[in-house]
Amino acid sequence: MNAPRIALRASERLTISSRSTLTAHVRENSSSTLQKPAAVSSDEGLPPSLDRPLGFPMPMQPLPPLPTLLQRTKTLLTTPGQHKKILAEEGGSYWRDFHAMRQAGGKQWTAPRLLFRQDKALYFPNVKGNLLSSGKEVELRVLLEEAQTAGSKAFLVRCFSATSGEEQVRGLGEALGVATIDLNMQTNAQQARYLIMDGGYASQLRYIGAVNAYVGYTYLLDLDGKIRWASSGALTETEQASLAKVASKLV
């Protein structure tokens, strides 16, 4: 079953960030664009299964307006310890993440075989940014609401920053009847209309386990925005079968 078509155009991209840039790409699911994702051929040498829910205890809340360039610059220059905070978030992560890719492609956990219970699951964080195509400011919360209005009953959020991570999650969920949203987390603002905003999005990513810049992460959300299933790195054939099974229970 194909996923309902959502309100935003397939080409829309949303940029969200703190020190780094977070891009959301909302895709329409059509049979002409479906790609079968590559799977890891063996389960040997993989980390243990994720045995606890990821996320935040509170649901997504409306966010304040994004700060202007002047406001961001003023905060950077006048807030005590701001430079140290940025260095703590960014420093040393490059080589740590790179070397972690040598072990199971950077996979930190094996995806669970079952959904996290609805009453135990935690919430995906809300983020805000500008659509690259139009400059429109929008929240992830609003995108989920629009997809829900269009008939979607579940959402697959695919997070990555490097090409390696994008390749790991490309095509996942596009034949499962769920709305897919890509969050492209860049470590700089080289592309046009990228927005760098105050506040630590890096700390939010740690709550959902997305700590390696080279790894792709996948989160299956229910209508409440709760993370009911999550994967890291390229999915094994067993994990792909698990995703198809758990997604069918939500749609």
From TrEMBL:
It comes from Protomyces lactucae-debilis. This is ATP10 protein-domain-containing protein. Residues 25-35 have a biased composition (Polar residues). The lineage of its organism: Eukaryota, Fungi, Dikarya, Ascomycota, Taphrinomycotina. PANTHER family: MITOCHONDRIAL ATPASE COMPLEX SUBUNIT ATP10. InterPro entries: ATP10. It comes from the Eukaryota. Residues 25-53 are annotated as: Disordered. One of its GO terms (biological process) is mitochondrial proton-transporting ATP synthase complex assembly. Pfam families: ATP-synt_10. GO terms for cellular component: mitochondrial inner membrane.
